[in-house]
Amino acid sequence: MRKRIREICSDLEAQYTVSILFAVENGSRAWRLDSEDSDFDVRFVFVRPLLHYLQIAVPKPVITMAFNKAGERCEKNAYIDISGFDLFKFVQLLANSNPTTIEWLITDIIYYGEQNRVFREFAVNNFSRAALFYHYQSLSRNNFEKYIESGKQVTYKRYLYSLRGLVNALWVLHEDSVPPIIFTKAVEGLAAIIPDPISEEIHMLIEKKLKGKEKEPTPHIKNLDSYILHFIKNLKAPEKRFHPSIDVLNSEIQRIILSNWFSSIT
To answer: Which helix (H) or strand (E) covers residue 5, if one does?
Structure first.
């Protein structure tokens, strides 16, 4: 499948007249929570030719496509879900400490190109603790309220999505750094914070999801429900301390755009 993803990236470059800087995995596979039927969540950053930016009608900053298991274009039931941001959109989000862009830069599953070192260093050294905390707390709350507390059939996937949000928020709060992309590393790194019975339940869920199906149901786990609910209601966000200089981002955008232009005319 990696080969097919690389082929798709190459085809996208030709079809849209763009250069893909990097394409990575940013879903359950990146978190090491994938089941046998998990899809591929491919995310990429692209840059257009210089002249495309020097016009009134700038092209859309997002490219999305979906492919089935045979690697063919499809409208639904995607096995390969691909979405990319234009360089400017990506960096604007990164400058505001958008957690999704940070995850694209730290995931270790890279399908095409390579992650930008300057952007990565900015992401891990200049992030907003409050922005990351609120994002992961919201991820935990939304999955818990919509899929666990609501009375719907509970699945391993939804428990783990809620717990991933919880654990990552705790990481930001206690470690003051970007959470590891691999979920078990975050759980193990917070061994002094997460009670042993909760940690054991989390590892049990991970093991069952890895061996089962993406949406395999599970009974309610009362101590996990209580732990998640307590977190949602009681944990407070860190103070807002976020005033980074974006000069380095501007310089890197200019370098990439001009390098891309020079390579196109030589």
So the answer is: helix 2-16
